[in-house]
Amino acid sequence: MTEKKNILVYPVILHPEDEGYSVEIPDVDNGTWTQGENLKDALLMAQDAIGIMLEDKTDYPEATKLEDISTKENDIKTVVYIDMEEYRRNNPKTVRKNVTVPEYLVVLGKKKKLNFSAILTEALKNKLEI
Fold first, then answer.
1. Which CATH number fits the domain that encloses residue 48?
2. Could you tell me where the beta strands, DSSP code E, fall in 30-119?
3. What distance in Å separates the CA atoms of residue 64 and residue 16, rounded to the nearest whole number?
4. How many domains, in total, are found in the chain?
5. Could you tell me if 52 and 66 lie in one domain?
6. Which of 32, 75, 120, 129 satisfies CB 3.0 to 4.6 Å to 71 for a cystine?
7. 35 — phi, psi (to 5°)?
8. pTM for the structure as a whole
9. pLDDT above 70 covers what percent of the chain?
10. Closest by alpha carbon to 51, among 95, 3, 15, 90?
11. Residue 3 pLDDT > 70, yes or no?
C-alpha cells in the first residue's frame, strides 16, 4: 500500500481535567492545545485543531514517534489520524478571486443564469484531479 501525503497521524497527549480533557498536540504549530468534554470529544477536537492549523499548508510537520513522547502520571498518549484532503472538502474556506474571461461568454452565461463561481470551482477540481 502506498503512503498518501494528505493522510497524517500525529501523537497527542490527553491531560485529564476535573471535567473532560485538555489535549496537547506537540508537533503542530510549535504545540497546539484544545479540549473535549469526554475522550471521544477530545480526540475529535484534536483532529479538528490539526485540520485548522494545517489547512493552508502542503508541507506538513513531521510527527514525533509515539515512544519519544514524555507524559506525566495520569496523562494518556495516543495518536490522531486526519485525511487533509477530506478535511478541506468538508470544511471549505472560500476566497474572492477576480478572473478575466471573454465578454461574450459572460453575456451568454448570464442569459443562461449560470453560477460562474460554481463552474470555475468544478473546472479547477477537474484540472487538479480532486
1. 3.30.160.250
2. 32-36, 76-83
3. 22
4. 2
5. yes
6. 75
7. -155, 165
8. 0.71
9. 98
10. 90
11. no
Positive/negative CA dihedral, 25, 91, 44, 21: positive
pLDDT category at 17 given cuts 50, 70, 90 is very high
Q: Which domain holds residue 25?
A: 7-90
Mean local confidence (pLDDT), 15-26: 96
Assess whether 56 and 11 both reside in one domain.
yes
Q: Which amino acid is at 118?
A: A
pLDDT computed for residue 47 by the predictor: 96
Domain co-membership, 69 together with 34: yes
DSSP 40-61: HHHHHHHHHHHHHHHTT-SSPP
Q: Quick one: CA dihedral 47, 53, 54, 60, positive or negative?
A: negative
Amino acid 15 reads H
